[in-house]
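Q: Can I see a sequence and its folded structure?
A: Here is a first one.
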Amino acid sequence: MGKRRDYYRDPNAPKPNSLVPGGSALVVDDRGAILMQRRSDSGNWSLPGGVMDIGETLEQCVIRETKEETGLDIEITGLLGIYTDPEHVIEYADGEIRQEFNITYYGRVSGGRIAVSNESTEVRFVRPDELERLPVHETVRLRLQHHSEKRADPYLG
């Protein structure tokens, strides 16, 4: 096992021992490609994001994490959805077993340059037609699907 293992709708998933508020950014370029990073801990392509620090809002967290993970400055422009499915469990090598808690915001690039962090092996804008061929966790695919549906209202779940 790497540093992280995701379980989704798996009856053999370990029992969570933590719940941590986190957020992600869904940033689209002018061609419709989506800012993604290939995680060094799981090898999956994912949206940039992370967990809140004390003293910051979740929007500030997502802006900070996107900068740390991708090198890009973003502005929050909207809300894709709230993802808190208790059947998504994330097991970390240090023994933490986390129930998913993620709010995914829409964002747009306001500055910076793409850069890989120690949390990723690659960062780039991924075209929607490429996504089927790339390793992407089901729960991230769900967010990408919600984006592609051009929903009038945020997903609540």
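Q: Show me another, different protein.
A: A second, unrelated one:
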Amino acid sequence: MSKAAEIDIVSVSKVYGATTAVHAISLKIPAGSYCCFLGPSGCGKTSTLRMIAGHESISSGDIRLGKTVVTDFPPARRGTAMMFQSYALFPHLDLIDNVAFSLKMKGVDKAERRAKALEMLKLMQMEPYANRRPAQLSGGQQQRVALARALITDPEALLL
């Protein structure tokens, strides 16, 4: 992640009907650092990550990535990549196409996206399995493919 950005969460809340899942969290995470949310099930860890990534709307507050307020940006414009708990790999695609999928959506030509996907698979020591489908991999191997898919976009923030 060559262009890491600070994440600034400012009084962010998430309310589902009468239930407050996240209450006015404020946190600054310096660029290039690691931050870990710990807590019991249902305390708002995943909801907070999903709000940072733009996969969940924010009830109140703001999120900045670097100097940009991204609160109302769709996920594709935020500069984040999120690796979900369930890896969400496409079962009908081989590993190259799974890793290259976001580049395909951005209109990157096939040769370039395949080359970048192979580079990411090599980084994850998964290049020998490039033509396999996710069901032919162990859980740990699937996790590395999901990480390669998240990193291929060169995100400003990687959310796990």
